[in-house]
């Protein structure tokens, strides 16, 4: 028997196999049902050898002889005692190889051209199959294109064979083809006809129909295939009656209608799986849309929280500015009273001036500033955590509606990864909130605010913001009165110069305090804006795994949708190629 497929057919099979392999990878990447992947793996495996012929019958009926005659080589043992103890699969391979698959299943590979695209399954005697039929039933008969039931002329339809026919009649009977081996033992055509009628009658009784029956001599056919004598080959071939049997097998296996079915079935399966995948993706798209909406809602809440938290600290910034305004008013009043002829001694004594300025102008500014800023930071942190807890609680409730309350028509397996990820995110957020050290965070923000103000004001950072501002205000007071140290000049020109210098000193002090207020407000505002943003980012970072998951889902759905579109187009192309390569009618 020659190879069943042409080179064009082989190229089509390879294209179909590549299509199904791509589809299998897509099923794996999208987490589709394992049963779908298993089914597709079986179809891919079947494409390696699309034709499967199973041979059954009583031992010594000549099953192995029939297969050896079909392939033209003695690949299987023959003899008068049971020689096939295991189910044997004959496959095409580049080298001869035997691979045991189980205690009673073995695969044999052989580089025979006749085995291309064909798997021949040799079985033990029918009595053995009855005892161990599960492997045969589940793995081979459902895929078999033909079941060759080999019986012998000298023992037609032995009791075990009848039992086996009764067992398979409901499922496999339509695939049965009877082979009456050892037909050369018949002394006459009448004897042969009598045996054939005996088999037909038994089939009508056991199966309800008459199957195809081919009387052959496997020994004569094998001799015709292997003899070196042309005359002997011709005589043995005619005596074997094998030609009609072989033509029937080729027509039955690789006839146009059967071949079209062989090529179309994988494409039918692929298109059904593509449809299933599209439904699967639609469900995932619905889920990820809900997840994205939940994330978008949380992002909007975080933006609102940002503005809300800034509004929380603005009154404290205004209070700090108000304290500086009071210092400015006290400073102007102090300078108004001090810069005059009668207070020249105070102006000349830097230490006394500094002490009086601190007592009457600065007062307890450093403590007030520190207290106000600390209160602002505490308020910021407390409000920030409360706002986050409320937003996160609402977020978790919405996510739970997706992953804990299964939406209609959504498979439980589809939600498994989401549930696990969601529970991990919730646990991480809970740990983040439980370990959040408000005191330490407050200390850090206060240090950052002091450093930012010092940098903005071009001053050296001190132990606290209040001390820094006090130093700068005192320095301003000293600087604007530094020119009054030349007491002799003031005494000589006091009536003329002093009022002018006084006005300049007051203007300069007001200018410097205004600049200090503006710079401090800008520095603190920018720093606290940063701290608000940092606080919310740090808390929201607990959701990064969820964000990444949603982003991956978006990419997967988009890429899979495009891949399915390409696979669908490839299915259509292959259908047209099959119609051209295998015309029917």
Give the helix/strand layout.
Layout: H1 7-29, H2 34-48, E1 51-56, H3 63-71, E2 87-92, E3 97-102, E4 105-110, E5 118-122, H4 126-131, H5 133-139, E6 146-152, H6 159-168, E7 176-181, H7 189-206, E8 212-215, H8 218-226, H9 230-240, H10 242-254, H11 256-338, H12 344-348, H13 350-362, H14 365-403, H15 412-434, H16 438-456, H17 465-481, H18 487-540, H19 544-581
Parallel strand pairs: 1-5, 1-6, 2-4, 6-7, 7-8
Antiparallel strand pairs: 2-5, 3-4
Helix pairs in contact: 1-2, 1-11, 1-19, 2-11, 3-8, 8-9, 10-11, 11-13, 11-14, 11-18, 11-19, 13-17, 14-15, 14-16, 14-17, 14-18, 16-18, 17-18
Please tell me about this protein's structure.
With 585 residues, this protein is an alpha/beta fold. The protein has 2 domains: 49-254, P-loop containing nucleotide triphosphate hydrolases (Rossmann fold, 3-Layer(aba) Sandwich); 275-570, no CATH class. It has helices at residues 7-29, 34-48, 63-71, 126-131, 133-139, 159-168, 189-206, 218-226, 230-240, 242-254, 256-338, 344-348, 350-362, 365-403, 412-434, 438-456, 465-481, 487-540, 544-581, and strands at residues 51-56, 87-92, 97-102, 105-110, 118-122, 146-152, 176-181, 212-215. Strand 7, helix 7 (189-206) and strand 8 form a beta-alpha-beta unit. Helix 2 (34-48) crosses helix 11 (256-338) and helix 3 packs parallel to helix 8. The chain is rod-shaped and about 160 Å long. Residues 405-415 and 486-490 have low confidence and may be disordered.
